[in-house]
Amino acid sequence: MLLTFSLDFAIIRPMLKIRLQRVGRVNIPTFRLVLTDSKNSTKSGKFLEVLGTYDPVKNVKEVNGDRVKHWMGHGAKLSDTVHNWLIDKKVIPGKKVNALPKRTAPKKEAPAPVAEAPKAEAPKADAPAAPEAAPAEAPVEAPKA
To answer: Fewest CB atoms less than 10 Å from the CB: which of 78, 82, 97, 143?
Structure first.
């Protein structure tokens, strides 16, 4: 008897990310808008396609909107900064997201439940009475000269 197996392999696609990659010299920043695997470091230099450029010194932003939409249709995710940038350029519709790191609110300590103090009881007749303190003497004033 002849056994045949058919193996259907799933196509493993890398998680694609569209983000800014810094290029340029020291104190002269320029950025590329690149499509890369999400596992690549931002400084690795590896990318699949250049989708635009950004020069913050001259405030020049260029983007290939058609290619960005194409890759978003294939499942590429945007970084928060790129998402906000594309909304400014009106390439994609939507609301901006907070790209700043999330601040954690200081933890407020919950006040410990206060148990009610027992009410002061009237002194018992069997207990000896506490001696009362003598009234304090008034201070003597110095004679006027």
So the answer is: 143
Order of strands, sheet of 49-55, starting from the edge strand that comes earlier in the sequence: 60-63, 49-55, 28-37, 16-25, 77-78
Which residues span the domain enclosing 69? 16-88
CA 94, CA 87: separation in Å to the nearest integer?
7
With respect to residue 132, please indicate whether it lies within any of the assigned structural domains: no
User: Is 61 within 8 Å of 89 (Cβ atoms)?
Assistant: yes
Residue 43 lies in a domain: yes
94 in any annotated domain: no
Please write the tens of the pLDDT for every residue from 31-82.
988 888 777 766 677 778 888 999 989 989 898 888 888 888 888 888 888 8
> What pLDDT is recorded for position 76?
86
Tell me the one-letter amino acid at 38.
Answer: S
Taking the whole predicted model, whether its pTM rises above 0.85 is answered as no
CATH of the domain at 31: 3.30.1320.10
